[in-house]
Each structure stands twice: as structure tokens, then as C-alpha cells.
Write a structure and sequence with these properties.
Helix content is 20%, strand content 40%. By secondary structure, the protein is an alpha+beta fold. It has one domain. It has a three-stranded antiparallel sheet, with helices on one face. A hairpin with a 2-residue loop joins β1 and β2. The relative contact order is 0.35. The mean pLDDT is 88.
Length: 55
């Protein structure tokens, strides 16, 4: 059985009325935050951890 957790995935989203639009999905945290900084306002970075696959 796998005990290793999968690496987190970072999602960069920008708000464009009336919805949040995904701009970037990456496993690289620094890249995600750099992209968010470059965009500026109305942006968020979400961190999700995928569930390990069951066999």
C-alpha cells in the first residue's frame, strides 16, 4: 500500500465577472505565486492535495 502523499497542486485563478477563471495549474508553488503576483488584483492561489489512488 502506498503511504506517500501525492504532491500538492497549485491553481491560480483570476476573477472575471461573474466567475473565477483558472489561469494556471502547476505543481510548482513558486511558479504559481510568481504568476499571481504578475497578474495583480483579483487573483487567488489555491492549494489542493490529490487523494492517493486506491487499488
Amino acid at each position: 500500500m502506498l503511504t506517500d502523499k501525492p504532491p500538492p497542486i497549485y491553481i491560480v485563478r483570476v476573477f472575471e465577472k461573474p466567475h473565477w477563471r483558472t489561469v494556471l495549474t502547476t505543481k510548482d508553488k513558486q511558479k504559481a505565486f510568481d504568476m499571481a503576483k504578475e497578474i495583480g488584483d483579483k487573483v487567488r492561489v489555491e492549494e489542493i492535495t490529490p487523494k492517493p489512488k486506491k487499488r
